[in-house]
Description:
Number of helices: 14
Helix content: over 70%
Strand content: under 5%
Oligomer: single chain
Structural class: mainly alpha
Number of domains: 2
Largest sheet: none
CATH superfamily of the largest domain: MetI-like
Radius of gyration: 25 Å
Number of strands: 0
Order of helices and strands: HHHHHHHHHHHHHH
Amino acid sequence: MKGNRGTGTSAKYLRSDIGVWVVRVFMCIYSVIVLYPILWAVFCSVKDNASLFDNIFALPSELHFENYVNAWTKAHISQYFLNTVVITIGSLALMMLFASMASYVIARYDFLGRRVFRFLYISGMMIPGTAGIVPLFIELSSFGMVDNRVALMLVNCVNMMAFSVFILISFFKTIPKEISEAATVDGCGRFKLFGRVMLPLAQPGLIPVLIIQFISCWSEVYYSMILLSTDSKKTLQIGLYNMQKVQFQRADYVVMFAASVLVALPSILMYIIFQKKIIGGISMGAVKG
């Protein structure tokens, strides 16, 4: 009997090890598939056009970092970059302000229609943004807000609200009521309680939401393309799209590759730096919620 148990346990561990190695091999193959296009674009961005056309898959024999300088200056990436930074920061600031207040009230206060408001916020994740683009454009046109960066910030804020509220409600629910009661006894009003007590305690949820929405807002294309028409107001994604048409005509592909790397770099760095906080915060909120 003991021998059979030992054999069964060994077979169980063997199957477990095989499963682990299969998963590892699969993840390695998947990582190569994901990383190869990124590395290929980086290598192409430091070539010259002659070597690029000679062998597009070969490693660069010489490094031409002036491609990045040309993309930044001659292709007006610097202006698009500044526009994207301003729009992203403004959108995130509005989103964090309204989403934190809405999720705090829904999570901490019991009032008539609380579940209805929560459902309305969360249902926003089920409705595609393209479904409302025509009435949105008409409404913004009636207020004279087309080709306006502030209008784009407001639209981005609204689009990010559903997911943000959904995640933050879970975090505000986990804060013990005794803390808010003690702060109220000490003389904290509702706004002071929210700003000085609840927001710091909800940081494990605020930080991953902020990072995820930064990546989403930085790479947003659809609304920027529809709402912004003046070239000096356009974002990186739209500027890169326009640049591709120009560079294809000029056959200056290496500058286009350099611009693509510059556009993608902030999102990649943001995810690499804050990867643990994103995964840890979202998983914590999912378990606690």
